[in-house]
Amino acid sequence: MKYLYFKIVFVILIFAMIFTTKSQAKYVINSNTIAAILNIDRTKPEIKIINAKKTNYNNSTNTSNVIITIRVIDKNVKKQIDVSKINVLINNRIIECTKEIVNLKNIDNGVEFDLLISNIEIDNTIKITLPNGFIEDGSGNTTQESEYEIKIVYQ
């Protein structure tokens, strides 16, 4: 009789363990391994000319400054912009001038900056050429060579 009681308790414990859905352990080991981080981006950065204005006209040298607002549309644009690659043309001739980036700011889907071109003689039209790879994004996509003819407004 004494062994029968142990057998019944043992069978009940076995059934209880089989039909129990919750398991418990004193130590739980979690292991996460990152196999690869992929940044798939096939879109090239897009450049748009927003505004152009002529400022600071100097009568003695007959020169002025031009500020061109450029918007680059891409979410992962690298902020390193080499202005020495920009060519400024007046009457289809490349001219020597001082170029610099001012007011670089982030916008929702890219960056926007003002390109200051100093000490140039112009009437109303200027051309700028931006070479291949002028702007690059985080995935290595670059802009294609582009040329913009811009009408300048004096302000």
Question: What shape does the CA trace take?
Answer: rod-shaped
Per CATH, which architecture? Sandwich
How large is the share of residues in beta strands?
35-45%
Describe the largest sheet. Answer: 5 strands, mixed
Percent in helix? 10-25%
Rg for CA atoms: 34 Å
Structural class: mainly beta
Strand order of the largest sheet: 5-6-2-1-9
What is the CATH topology assignment? Immunoglobulin-like
What value does the average pLDDT take?
82
Topology order in helix (H) and strand (E) letters: HEEEEEEEEE
- CATH hierarchy, class: Mainly Beta
How many strands in all?
9
Annotation field: number of helices: 1
* Low-confidence regions: none
The multimeric state of the shown protein is single chain
What separation lies between the terminal Cα atoms? 109 Å
Question: Mind explaining what this structure looks like?
Answer:
- The protein is mainly beta.
- The chain has a single domain, classed as Immunoglobulin-like, CATH 2.60.40.1220.
- It is 12% helix and 42% strand.
- The chain has 1 helix and 9 strands, in the order αβββββββββ.
- It has one helix at 2-19; strands spanning 46-58, 63-73, 87-90, 93-94, 98-107, 110-120, 125-130, 146-151, 153-154.
- The protein has a 5-stranded mixed beta sheet with strand order 5-6-2-1-9, with no helix packed on it. It has a 4-stranded antiparallel beta sheet with strand order 4-3-7-8, with no helix packed on it.
- A hairpin with a 4-residue loop joins β1 and β2.
- The longest helix has 18 residues, at 2-19.
What descriptive keywords fit this protein?
rod-shaped, 1 helix, single chain, 42% strand, four-stranded antiparallel β-sheet, five-stranded mixed β-sheet, mainly beta
